[in-house]
Amino acid sequence: MSGLGVLMLVAGGAWIIFVSLFSALVQTLAPDWVPARVLAMFMLIFQGGLAAGSALWGLIGQREGIDAALLWAGIGTVATSGLGLFWRLPSGPADLSPWSRWRIPVAVEEVGPGLEDGPVLVTVEYHVESDVTAFIKAIHEQERVRRRDGASRWGIYRDTAAPDRFLETFEVRSWAEHLRQHARQTQADRRLEERIKSYVSGPPTARHLVRARRGGRASQE
User: Fold this and answer.
1) DSSP letter string over 51-120?
2) What's the DSSP call for residue 164?
3) How far is CA 153 from each of CA 32, 143, 169, 179, 180, rounded to the nearest angstrom?
4) Taking the model in full, what pTM does it have?
5) Exposed, middle or buried by CB within 10 Å (0-12, 13-18, 19+), for 122?
6) Closest to 168 in 3D by CA, of 125, 198, 135
7) Distance CA 86, CA 94 (A)
8) Neighbours of 190 (CB within 10 A)
9) Residue 126: closest CA among 166, 163, 156
10) What pLDDT, on a 0 to 100 scale, did the predictor assign at position 190?
């Protein structure tokens, strides 16, 4: 077997190992309620990148020559490997077991929303007693958790009349989707939640409001 054949054998084996390990890592790092969707998105991006890359390098090879295409592909491979210095994968799997801290929101019977009613506006009021800068940094980290669990239009606001009062707001598509959020928090989110609470005086106050439509219902907790 020629030297090139040996190199191709080693490269092919390394490629198989990489794809297997990365696919397993994607499933390991995904919460229990979403692994199938995460894996589907990973495969879509991964396989789509292969297809788009094949077309791109084929076009470059046709116009500039195969040597130029291979040269630039090699340079791109070396350059992108440096991204690992800035965007590292987690060193180990996080604790993704469920953490049910939120109590199920209660609505009075005459205005109680149906499961498909929405969107739902959720507001959480905090009274920050120390280190406002650290609180703002921590609450912005929570934006990723809220959006991961199905929220949109996330924001954090400070009361101009009471500087220690902050209001976190986000929207959820429906009442049913918001109820699912209560089952999507994990033990890995607990550390961030406790860090936020360390800057806050008293328990945060949550309110849930459903868009009021003509002839419809709205709720507030």
Assistant:
1) HHHHHHHHHHHHHH-HHHHHHHHHHHHHHHHGGGGTSPPPSS----SB---SPPP---GGGPPPTT---E
2) T
3) 25, 10, 8, 18, 18
4) 0.60
5) buried
6) 125
7) 20
8) 13
9) 166
10) 80
The 10 Å CB-count burial string (b at 16+, else e) for 100-112 is: eeeeebebeeeee
Distance, CA of 152 to CA of 173 (rounded, Å)? 8
Whether the CB-CB separation of 156 and 139 falls below 8 Å is answered with yes
CA 192 to CA 187: how far, in whole Å? 10
pLDDT tens-digit readout, 10-42: 888 888 898 888 888 777 777 666 777 788 888
213 token code pair: 């439509």
Q: Which amino acid is at 221?
A: E
- Ramachandran class of 93: left when φ > 0, alpha when ψ lies in -120 to 50, beta otherwise: beta
Confidence of residue 170 (pLDDT cuts 50, 70, 90): very high
